[in-house]
Amino acid sequence: VIRVLPYGDRAALVDLDRPEQVLGLHAALDDEPPSGTVEMVPAARTLLIQFDPGRTSFERLSAEITRHSVADDVQRLGPEVEVPVRYDGADLGEVARETGLTEVEVIRRHAGTTYAGTTYTVAFCGFAPGFGYLTGLDPALQLPRRATPRTRVPPGAVAIAGEYTAVYPRESPGGWRLIGSTGLTMWDVHRHPPNLLVPGTRVRFVERAG
Amino acid sequence: MSGKIEVLTPGPFATIQDLGRPGLANLGVGRSGAADRSSLRLGNRLLGNPEDTAAIEATLGGLVVRFSEPALVALTGAACGIQVGGRAAGMYAPIQVRAGDQLRLSPPATGLRTYLAVRGGVDVAPVLHSRATDTLAQLGPPALSAGMTLPVGDRVAGYPVVDLAPQAPFPDELTLRVTAGPRLDWFIPGTWDVLTSGAHEVTANVDRVGVRLAGPVLRRRAEGELPPEACVPGALQVPPSGMTILFLADHPVTGGYPVIAVVDDAGIDLAAQARPGQRIRFTS
User: Is residue B33 within 8 Å of residue B132, measured between CB atoms?
Assistant: First the structure.
């Protein structure tokens, strides 16, 4: 069942249970956008659909969306990106202590494929331009954010928080746990799209020696 | 045109704004752009510019600039006293500026943001196809500072055809129409009536991200965080503190607090002119 919630006078929020349903519905609606759609924004469990009230209504849009069965919307596989990582993050030791794992075990569980044997997937972007939330993090590595965020996290920092992992695209403040770094250019305004990791991208982290 | 605008003082805060970067929210890039879009559009129309041409958004006046070449400019939004080359000039009308003239804005008596549009547009380098400064995402040109020089462009759509576009003054108390947000059910029964009955005061905490309000407490049914979900301009987001924030142009792309209601599109430009201490009523 797809729940469609009103979001003001020109948007609807589709509420789903799992991140892969968000990607699946987004891909399906991207192929055949309901009439009057202006912009779609995926997030953790929701897909925002902004519409032109001159061309459609909340009721009409909801009816078009609920015609889709999320179970049928098989997630299309996006491009795969390999991210080389030096696991030298400032919080690696702390992550090991709080999870009761060794640092080597933390790295083993983060690098390569996910605990489910698949690649990580960029579920959505938010927080900052180009900041992608990747799903697939091993439950043994899931910790809350730092109690005190850092005022400055360098670009390329590989980090974890909650059910997600991410690579900071630009220098910014940040409260995620830093476990490594990559030399890849994650964000470049002269590139199209500027993000290396757009929603749907599959990611494989590969350990590189320091 | 090849003139330049030299910033002598930016006033309390000034940025360059156009109509922003629509369509990139799925990449984590918000729309940004003029906080009061209708005033930016009006300024451009008065000059024969395309409506989305970049202009200066000044906050609480105080801006002083000097033009290197003759220019045609217009001021819209919050009404300021205007001096051009030592002469008084009026709002909402094209103003001919001579080479070397200084243009000074005094603080507006009502409203917050004044737009200084120039025929041809402010021609700084675009970032992701927009010259808007997104203050939250740190995208686009830096905020204006003394000594900065801004090139004037040649982006025109036609000739100016209107001499004056009088504007109604901003009301003392704003009334903004709201419709339900997606998370109204996160609040205790009757919260909609609480939101739409009492007056909400605009706190000192006002910027391009949003307007923080003090007013009747909107009580949640339960604590807890929402997984991040997309935000829109006009959204009324309620953090656990209960201090509602009304999102404006530079709102975060996603947020983790429940959105109880959304100000109608037409009300967002008015909300962007709300000053600290002013009262807002929400009506359904």
Answer: yes
Q: What is the pLDDT of residue A78?
A: 83
B40 HSE (CA, 13 A, CB side): 27
* Residue A75: band (very low, low, confident or very high) from pLDDT cuts 50, 70, 90: low
Distance, in angstroms, between A113 CA and closest chain B CA? Answer: 24
| Alpha carbon distance, N-terminus to C-terminus of chain A | 48
B100/chain A closest Cα distance in angstroms: 36
**Segment B225-238 mean pLDDT:** 94
Q: What is the largest CA-CA distance in chain B?
A: 63
pLDDT of residue B277: 96
Whole-angstrom distance, CA of residue A197 vs CA of residue A203: 8
**Eight-state DSSP code of residue B52:** T
Cα–Cα dist B116/B8, whole Å = 15
Chain centroid offset of residue B192 CA: 27
- Residue in chain B lying closest to A163 (CA): B227
Which helix (DSSP H) or strand (DSSP E) does residue B235 occupy? strand B235-237
| ipTM of the shown complex | 0.92
Q: How many CA atoms lie within 13 A of B56 on its CB side?
A: 32
Strand, helix or coil for residue B164? coil
